[in-house]
């Protein structure tokens, strides 16, 4: 089955064309600056194309992608009729979706109702679904939710200690995100452990957005992100865990509205806020190496926050069989992995400095042979999860 995978953002969209049965990727790319001037970056085989294309809306962007896939130098299929299904990344499914579903009017209506929980993401996700329905009528569309994997969390883990009515009236609780990545990486770790039962895995998805999850026997029992992605770890521009009192005090001292304060929390904090240099960890690592103390502080804070959650989740899991690192930072920043794992000998987890500093695009174990808990670096593949879920939903429903 040939699946068109779409991840629609507010002013950009990522895409991939894949056969999930054999994991063959025919093409992938990115549309940027939608509504401004439009840039399409298209990769196929060993080749790359970059084109400036007028994209006033997402519709023109998706039309441009489909045209590039079927015509000219970037052609990889003869017709859009070769596409058998469309898989969509959907950010927030609330409590309504515990798995991937065929897109129907009822599903879209439910996602619209959940927009207050993800005002930046759900509208763009819905737009992508509706445009694909228009441009490829009759083709099944499947929504794959970031939050679905974490719907197995027990109530004592996902509830906030607010008045209970805030949950019953407004569904205020922890939902978690990066679910497709946490699912993929934890499942890969179970294969690497060659242990299917009583597996205790901690996944550290570290990138511009970061989260940690505790996965018991393949099911999420806790995760660091909450009602929204701002909770949890310190990230590229997000603050992560900040006490409500600190937020209120900052607002009163700076004369900020709640929207202005949330803008600070989401876009001006985290790595960029502490380092004062960049939200890109590579630049901050270079700054620390050159003696910049704020960059050094940012690195120490990042590692400490991750380690804090690793320790908490090891306790929640009653031990740990594997700690996994994934995402742009998790896969590439050896120093962060080293700092997170330093001192975890008491848990039976010991990192091998030589293995840790070797670069590879393959999944690997960087723990010492004597370590009772393994340390895995596993490249994530969220697009495969979306494509495979789409394949399973479509074949199961007979579409």
From TrEMBL:
Reaction it catalyzes:
acetate + ATP = acetyl phosphate + ADP
Supply the name of the protein: Acetate kinase
What SUPFAM superfamilies does its record include?
A: Actin-like ATPase domain (SSF53067)
**Which keywords are on file for this protein?**
ATP-binding, Cytoplasm, Kinase, Magnesium, Metal-binding, Nucleotide-binding, Transferase
What this protein is reported to do is described as:
Catalyzes the formation of acetyl phosphate from acetate and ATP. Can also catalyze the reverse reaction.
CDD domains in the cross-refs: ASKHA_NBD_AcK_PK
From the UniProt record, give the pathway where this protein acts: Metabolic intermediate biosynthesis; acetyl-CoA biosynthesis; acetyl-CoA from acetate: step 1/2
State where Mg(2+) binds.
7, 382
Q: Which family does it belong to?
A: Belongs to the acetokinase family.
Q: Where is this site: Transition state stabilizer?
A: 178, 238
Query: Which residues of the sequence carry a binding annotation for ATP?
Result: 14, 205-209, 280-282, 328-332
Q: Could you tell me which species this protein originates from?
A: Arcobacter roscoffensis
The source's domain of life comes to: Bacteria
Residues recorded as binding substrate, renumbered to this chain, are: 89
Q: What is its main location?
A: cytoplasm
EC main group: transferase
Q: Where in the cell is it found?
A: Cytoplasm
Q: How is the cofactor bound?
A: Mg(2+). Can also accept Mn(2+).
């Amino acid at each position: 089955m040939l699946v068109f995978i779409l991840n629609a953002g507010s002013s950009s969209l990522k895409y991939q064309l894949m056969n999930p049965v054999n994991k063959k990727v025919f093409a992938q790319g990115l549309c940027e600056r939608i509504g401004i001037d439009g840039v399409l970056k298209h990769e196929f085989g060993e080749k790359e194309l970059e084109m400036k294309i007028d994209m006033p809306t997402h519709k023109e962007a998706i039309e441009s992608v489909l045209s590039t896939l079927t015509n000219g130098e970037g052609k990889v299929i003869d017709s859009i009729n070769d596409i058998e299904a469309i898989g969509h990344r959907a950010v927030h499914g609330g409590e309504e979706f515990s798995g991937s579903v065929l897109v129907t009017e009822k599903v879209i209506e439910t996602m619209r109702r959940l927009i207050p929980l993800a005002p930046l993401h759900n509208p763009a996700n819905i737009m992508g679904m509706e445009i694909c329905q228009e441009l490829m009528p009759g083709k099944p569309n499947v929504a794959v939710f970031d939050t679905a994997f974490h719907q197995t969390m027990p109530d004592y883990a996902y509830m906030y200690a607010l008045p209970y009515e805030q949950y019953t009236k407004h569904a205020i609780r922890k939902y978690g995100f990066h679910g497709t990545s946490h699912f993929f990486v934890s499942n890969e770790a179970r294969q690497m452990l060659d242990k299917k039962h009583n597996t205790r895995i901690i996944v550290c998805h570290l990138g511009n957005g970061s989260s940690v999850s505790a996965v018991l026997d393949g099911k999420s029992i806790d995760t660091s992100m909450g009602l929204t992605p701002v909770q949890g770890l310190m990230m590229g521009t997000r603050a992560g865990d900040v006490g409500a009192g600190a937020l209120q005090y900052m607002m009163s001292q700076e004369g900020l509205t709640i929207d202005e304060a949330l803008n600070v929390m989401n876009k001006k904090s985290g790595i960029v806020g502490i380092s004062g240099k960049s939200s890109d960890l590579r630049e901050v690592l270079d700054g620390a190496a050159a003696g910049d103390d704020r960059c050094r502080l940012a690195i120490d804070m990042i590692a400490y926050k991750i380690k804090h959650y690793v320790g908490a989740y090891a306790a929640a899991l009653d031990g740990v069989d594997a700690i996994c690192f994934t995402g742009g930072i998790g896969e590439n920043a050896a120093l962060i992995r080293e700092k997170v794992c330093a001192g975890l000998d008491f848990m039976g987890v010991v990192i091998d400095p030589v293995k840790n500093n070797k670069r590879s695009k393959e999944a690997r174990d960087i723990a010492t042979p004597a370590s009772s808990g393994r340390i895995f670096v596993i490249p994530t593949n969220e697009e495969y999860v979306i494509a495979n879920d789409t394949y399973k939903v479509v074949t199961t429903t007979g579409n």
